[in-house]
Amino acid sequence: MKNYLVTLCLFVGFTSCQPSLKYTDSTSLEWNDFPAVYPVHGTEVKLDEELLRPSRCYFTDQKLILKDDSEDYLLHFYEVDHFQKAGSYFTFGNGPDEYLWINNVWTDDSSLWVSDLRKSAVHRYKRSDFIKNIAPSELMAEKVVRLQDPYSSLVSLPDSSFLTLAGDIRKKRISHYDKNGIFLETAGEFPTWQEELSPFELLEGFRANLVLSPDKKSVFLFYMQTDLIEQYDLQGKLLKRIHGPEKFFPAVKQMLHGTNVHVSSVAGKSRDAYFSPLATSDKIYVLYSGEYFNPEKMNYLKRHLFVFDKDGKPVCRYELDQSIFCFTIDEQNQILYGISDQPEFHILKFELGLNKKSTNL
After folding, report:
1. Superfamily of domain 23-351
2. Which terminus of the chain has fewer CB atoms gathered within 10 Å of its CB, N or C?
3. What's the average model confidence in pLDDT over 118-141?
């Protein structure tokens, strides 16, 4: 009996001394921090001209924009009243108004912007040209901005400058470029906790997507391999770091392949977190996963849709009855359009404001 008590005391003493893992300067996000939870039903959208492999979606001026790299044109505009194709634009290539990899499309008051990740370039077009459905041959960019450095995510600011997440281990967390793509400064630090990562593991483990806040006074970073959200002001000062709802950390491993450094996810340890953040006039929407990485059964689909206000405070969450991997919002009609690839690629429509009854899940 005495030996048992000694062993028990040693165990309790040892476990009580183990530090709980925590990001520096972080607060906690819990599932029940969302005041309301809404189940929502999705219905399949039938396009008048189907696409083979739509991979991204955007919404503007009552048009659903679908990206499909397997088609002759990369972006396809559909009128949402009957989902009739209004036009298709942009081809693959290195020429003017051609793209290697479109990674984002957004609008401001008078312009439609298209970002090409592989060219590190942003093209600005007249928004009215797409409203009028002009012919692809007549479409020309008003301006092309080529940034000096590669980036993984980018937002345009009200003064026409840009903030990016750099694809360069020599840069800090956020980099600022002027309206002509000239580098200005880099600021902010990568998150830290009780473990250390190599510079290459930091870059991969803390991959994130940037989104400009609804009031355009700050930016949010939604991390993909840790359930972490950060808010920075436009000068690169950290305002808020939120960890949750499951509080996991990046699990990545650096390896050498000859002279090349390769960083990969770890089966059974790496997890997916936040994807496809989108800001509307007063809210921020983002998909949340929490799934473990399994190379034998890759799963990019998500059912949890979190909603935050302009300051990052939880507003509500939606539980989708059909999983999607990206989405866009028709803010006026409170409709979410999402893409799923199971059992094959198709478009789903979720009416977020319909029969909005909260439930405990």
Report:
1. TolB, C-terminal domain (2.120.10.30)
2. N
3. 96
